Amino acid sequence: MCVALAPNHFFRSGISQYLHRAPEHHALKSFGIAKIDASLRVGLVLSHTYGEGVGREVEGFDTLTPVLEEIAQADGLVLGSPIYFGDVTGQMRTFLERLAFPWLSYNDYSMTAPKRMPVVLIETMNGTPERNNSNGYGSMEHCLSAALGQPERIVAYNTYQVKNYDRFELASFSEEAKRRWRDEHWAEDLQKAFDAGKKMAERILG
Q1: Is the alpha carbon torsion for 6, 12, 13, 14 positive or negative?
Q2: How many angstroms separate the CA atoms of 160 and 206, rounded?
Q3: Global pTM?
Q4: 2-205: which CATH topology?
Q5: Which end of the chain has fewer CB within 10 Å, C or N?
Q6: 3-class SS of residue 201
C-alpha cells in the first residue's frame, strides 16, 4: 500500500490532484490519502523507549498516531505541500517532525525507520524554475533520505492560484500569464506525478 498526505485545507487545490495522480498506476491501486488536519495535536515526549521490533517508540498517543502506524506498514510514501516563504507549510513541517522523531537515536544520531520505502515529495509554488526561493522540505528531506531512502522530488511551478485575480491583492501577477503557464504545463506536471508512481510501483514489485 502507498500512503499519500497533504495539509487538509489544500485538498481542493491542485496539490490533491498531484497526490491522486502519483499512486494511480495499476500496481498502486491500494493506497490511502490522508489529510493533515489543522487542529492536529502533536505530543513529542523527549525520551524514547525501545520497542520489541525494529526502531523506537515515542511514549504517549496523539492524533497522528494512527497515520504513523499506517505509514510504518506501507510500501511507499507520497507527500505534497505548497511552498510558502520558501518552505513547506507549518502543518507539513509539524507532521514530518512527528514522523521522524521516533526514528532518531540520541546514542549516535542515526535514523532508523521500521522499514525503508520509496518516497515522492511534491511541491507547488508561485515561483518559476528561474526565480524561486524554495528550500523544499529542508532538513526533513535529509531525515527522510537517511531513514527511508533518497526521495524523488516533483515541483509544480508558477501555480494558478485563484479563478479571479481582481478580487485579491495579486497585482504583481499577470492572470493571463498564469493561465497560459497552467495550460502549457498542467498535463506535463500531472504526468510527472504519474511517472513517479509508476517508478515507485516498479521498485516495490522488484
Answers
A1: positive
A2: 38
A3: 0.81
A4: Rossmann fold (3.40.50)
A5: C
A6: helix
Instruction: Report the run of H or E that residue 119 belongs to, with start and end.
Output: strand 119-124
147 vs 138: CA distance, rounded Å:
15
What 3-state DSSP class applies to 186? helix
Instruction: Determine contact, residues 162/143, Cβ cutoff 8 Å.
Output: no
Per domain, the residue ranges of the chain are 2-205
Residue located via cell numbers 498502486: 28
Task: Encode pLDDT of 54-68 as tens digits.
Answer: 445 555 556 778 888
Alpha-carbon gap, residue 160 to 165, rounded angstroms: 10
Phi-psi region of 149 (alpha: psi -120 to 50; beta: other; left: phi over 0): left
Distance CA 30, CA 38 (A): 26
Q: Count Cβ atoms within 10 A of the Cβ of residue 69 and give its class: 0-12 exposed, 13-18 middle, 19 or more buried.
A: exposed
